[in-house]
Amino acid sequence: MKNIIKSTLLLVATSLFFIGCGNNGGKEQKKGGALENNVAEKVYVAPGEHDSHYAFISGGYSGNLTVYGLPSGRMFKEIPVFSQFPTSGYGYSEETKPMLNTSHGFIPWGDSHHPDISQTNGEIDGRFIFINENNTPRIAKIDLRTFETTEIIEVPNSAGNHSSSFVTENTEYVVAGTRFSVPVPQRDMPIKEYKGNFQGALSFISVEPEHGHMDIKFQILMPGFNYDLSHPGRGASHGWFFFSTYNTEEASTLLEVNASQNDKDFIAAVNWKKIEEYVNNGGGTMMPAEYAHNVYDEVTHTATSTMKKEVRVVNPSEVPGAVYLLPTPKSPHGCDVDPTGEYIIGNGKLSANLTVHSFTKMLDAIENKKFAGDAYGIPILNFEDVLAGSVEQPGLGPLHTEFDDKGNAYTTFFISSEVVKWKLGTWEVLDRKPTYYSVGHLTIPGGNSRKPQGKYMFAMNKITKDRYLPTGPELEHSAQLYDISGDKMELLLDFPTHGEPHYAAAMEADLIKKRSRKIYKLEENNHPYAAKSDADVKVVRKGNEVHIYMTTIRSHFSPDNIEGIKVGDKVYFHITNLEQDFDVPHGFAVIGQNTSELLIMPGQTKTSVWEPTKVGVWPFYCTDFCSALHQEMQGYIRVSPKDSPIKLSWSLDGE
Amino acid sequence: MIKHKILMIFGSLLLLLLFIFPLWNITLEAPQYPTPLGMDIYIGKFADMHPHDIKNINLMNHYVGMKYIPETIPEFKIFPPVIIVMVILGVLIGLKANYKWYLRWLVLMTLLGIAGMYDFYLWEHNYGHNLDPKAIMKFTNPDGSVMGFQPPLFGSKDILNFRAHSYPRFGAYAMFIGMFLTFIAYLVGKKNQKVNYK
Ligand SMILES: [Cu+2]
């Protein structure tokens, strides 16, 4: 019997795949259509002019976040988040190493997935952007004044932090849902006893309104399903959060088959306001847990890592009315809520139709206690009672849905490689356009808010194939920009992205642009090793540690010659960039260093460690072409034998 | 009170605006500075037009051996009391004195103004020509003499890759208006005198 199911499924899967390929054929008939319609003009941003939108595209396995302009598709910056980044020294400098600390130690890599911009009253406010790390569960906050990662919190009891990091409509919470259920607390146990023993943690991380400081307020310990994606309610459904699930079978092996058995999985609807109230009244229990909370202080230019020891957990069956399960066909991946907050779209990736649930009907069914049963004490509603409608046969392999400002939805189809536009309420398909190839997420600026800006939509693809000049077996992925202001979508541009463009958040540029910082103020620099003028320059020995308080300005280091260092010393170069001019960083590198160079922004202090292993006179220099005399920006450090009597000395201003 | 007296007093009081608004401004434009660098000159200090402009002017100017713009110059100690004395004098003249004194005040003020401008020119000249002999970059004029980097006293001028602009600012305009009002006061006072004779 099992074999029959297996082979049938395989047959279905293969035929889906072939249909997908078939649809792809002939999709590029209209080559050259772009020029006829002056499409080029729509994405052309003249030299010196600015794009109208920012797009923040996650780097997937790069661990970072890349910043693009729309409509040009130009990449402006890569923001290091979960991975060491030699370009700026992030994760290499002494100040930023603590950012990558976890309960498993220093982890120099992560895979970043879903960026989401902070909101006020359901509208994007451009203050912070949050992004999740999947592999070692973490949530990061990036300050959009400086475009720097300023906080990272590890998520305990979680694994495969995928249904994250979406924010509620006043940025009350950032959620982090676990994709993989695990033993909670972690312990040594047989894997085949998964069912009923593993649990899925949904973490609600509070965001302090003024500075955005994050703190895990509570975790809901859910049944051992896989929690795939999530979305906050908004408007009437504000106060609720929705999580798609798969593997409600609670299988632990050959999930491709064994987690695809149930005709329907669930969307879990969580009334977080109810749980918040329960917790505020002392509900839930504190559970021992170990997780790192890393905060970068912009004034000391230094990150600190604190290890937290416990977390508050809530058993959902103990908070009646807080969590319900909405049956959704079939292994839903995307879980998207429309701008009004009424419709919850569950894209069953193995289902032929798109399922749309109604929030109003859900409340009605709850009110009338129309339950189909329960799972571990959590009520299950009837599929028919909550169903708003379904989009029939829209394509193959539906994944994610975004919305415009005119009541339309746009869903990506991975297998048939297309974006399908359909109407909320009538569920009719209005338009479809191919993507090249295998699209995952799509983004509309202002998405995940009450006010999407329905001019552009871009799709992020997993496969690039023939879109650009070949670069060997490995190609960068691609994104495709569409104009969605008219009745039909129009493909405008196709641009490469760095890493895996997993998901993106985008918004109009003005809000961020006008708040963007140009320098760090030197008078606000409270780094303990800052040298704010040449009067502060010094070299101090503490045992075998040598601390060099160094300054840079166009085009010299102070001091520039240092003697009295010995083999076996641990030399800290604390370098303060005295510039106070926009876009004038200085760099620093010293020969034989086994970290990266540093890039120090105006007014900033950064520290690089160098452990000389050889006697000699070794150069250091500025790594960023800073001025007409950049090549002259250099110095020497003399390293003597361990037992040398040479005293510390240094030169300043040519003396 | 009579109209000309009010004009005289108001005109001399306008000089007090020099303590609030800049007198003069020098701005340097270049392609790599989309926001030009600028320095406002007040009666008692130099100030950045945008934060850190003076620091950045200094950093740039050091390539050709120019000194750093000083925190203070002796003139900043002299100008404010002179202006205060002139204001007090102006008010007293307005209150007590004959209209002929209005003109005497104006002539004195004009002479002081010319002296101030001349002094400023000397300072600028010294700042633009007294270069560090170890300067990184040395430029000569077509006639072989060492190039100076003096900004214009009034107007605009190209200096290497920069275009320098030097123009009065609101403080100076307030002073000119004040002086003009005292002149009007003189004319009105004179006219009144004639009327009274008739
Ligand atoms: Cu440099």
From TrEMBL, chain A:
It is found in: Cell envelope. It comes from the Bacteria. The keyword Transcription does not apply. Its EC number is 1.7.2.4. One of its GO terms (cellular component) is cell envelope. It holds the Pfam family nos_propeller. PROSITE patterns: COX2 (PS00078), PROKAR_LIPOPROTEIN (PS51257). One of its GO terms (molecular function) is nitrous-oxide reductase activity. SUPFAM superfamilies: Cupredoxins (SSF49503), Nitrous oxide reductase, N-terminal domain (SSF50974). It is an enzyme of class 1 (oxidoreductase). Keywords: Copper, Metal-binding, Oxidoreductase. This is Sec-dependent nitrous-oxide reductase. It comes from Tenacibaculum singaporense. The gene is nosZ.
Automatic annotation (TrEMBL), chain B:
The chain crosses the membrane at residues 7-26, 78-95, 102-123, 170-189. It comes from the Bacteria. Keywords: Membrane, Transmembrane, Transmembrane helix. The keyword Transmembrane helix applies. This is Copper chaperone NosL.
